[in-house]
Structures are given as C-alpha cells and as structure tokens.
Design a protein that fits this description.
With 186 residues, this protein is mostly beta strands. The chain has two helices and eleven strands.
C-alpha cells in the first residue's frame, strides 16, 4: 500500500460525526496525518486513528512500514526548536560576557546578532539570527525562540466622544413639529 501524504485519503475517527469515516489528509506530522477533513461533514480536526478509549486511538499503524508510531507526541512550543542534546552554547556566551550587558526585551526595539536579551518569561538569551524583517531568533537556556523586534508600537486611534442626544424639553417646538390640520370632508 502507498505511503500517506497531504491530499490523500485515510480512514479516521471523526470527532463531529462520532464514527469512523473516510477523511482527506490536510497536514502531516512525519509519516502520520496531523489534521484531516471528514468527507461526510467537511469538518477539519486532528487525526484520530480510532474511537476514544480504543487502542487504535493511541497507536496508528503505518501501512507501508508496518511499524507503530504514536500520534500524540511532546511538541515544542510554537516558534521554538527542540532542546539541545549537548552543553548549551548560551552558557559559554554568558560565561564570557556576563548577564549585566543584557537589554530588557521590547518588540519595539531593534536588536543585533550577538546581543544579550532579558525576556520577562524566557529569561536571558542571545540573538543568533534575523531570519526576516521584524523577527529574530533568540537562544535561551532551554530552546531557541523566534521573537519580534523593530515593531512600531500599536497606535490607538482617538475615539470621537459623542454627545448625548438633546432632551425633549430643550428641542424647540413650533408649527413644523405639529401634524398639519386637516379639514373635515363633510
């Protein structure tokens, strides 16, 4: 049997239909579908090899190789790469420079490669690359993360303050405000 790929069809448990249905593979994670679209209800959801509570839901058989692969895996946080296998290169940078030269992180400021950054959530890190305008790759103790830089702060447009409508007592009354007088026909 051929290997699954995005756009191909597979049988999976539909979380909307609550039944095993044919699905189109939308996204792949290695050799296992990550996201599928049901051909019956057209809803997209994560790939489930079988109904909840069955062994097939936890382990998916890959038809080409016949080996079992877990569908749920520990994924790193969005915008990061896996942790380092050897000694962390950040430790060498911090040993040579110290943490006193680290600048406080702000998305509005510009950073150069090699600068130390102090992030409020991730701690001390070193800028390793600028892959595209407005983005920088920062090496932290646990992982490398993609952060924003050189972004203009969001400008809040001034909101025009509306005046309340005038009171009935303040509105001038005159002949134009009254309905016209109608002569009786008889």
């Amino acid at each position: 049997m051929e290997k699954l790929k995005a756009g191909g069809e597979t049988s999976a448990y539909c979380t909307s239909c609550k039944d095993m249905r044919h699905h189109v593979v939308v996204a792949m994670s290695g050799d296992v579908p990550a996201k599928v679209e049901c051909l019956s209800c057209h809803k997209q959801h994560k790939f489930k090899a079988g109904p909840p509570g069955t062994k097939a839901a936890k382990v998916a058989k890959i038809s080409s190789g016949g080996s079992a692969v877990k569908t749920k895996s520990a994924r790193p946080a969005a915008g990061s790469v896996p942790a380092f296998s050897g000694p962390n290169p950040l430790e060498a940078i911090l040993a040579s420079r110290g943490t006193s030269s680290a600048r406080s992180y702000s998305p509005a400021e510009r950073y150069a490669i090699g600068e130390l950054v102090s992030h409020p959530s991730f701690g001390i890190g070193a800028v390793t690359a600028t892959p595209s305008p407005g983005k920088m790759s920062v090496l932290f103790r646990d992982t490398t993360r993609l952060l924003l830089h050189e972004r203009a702060p969001a400008v809040v447009a001034p909101v025009a303050k509306l005046a309340p409508p005038p009171r009935r007592e303040d509105i001038p009354t005159g002949p134009a405000d009254r309905p016209p007088k109608v002569k009786p026909i008889l």
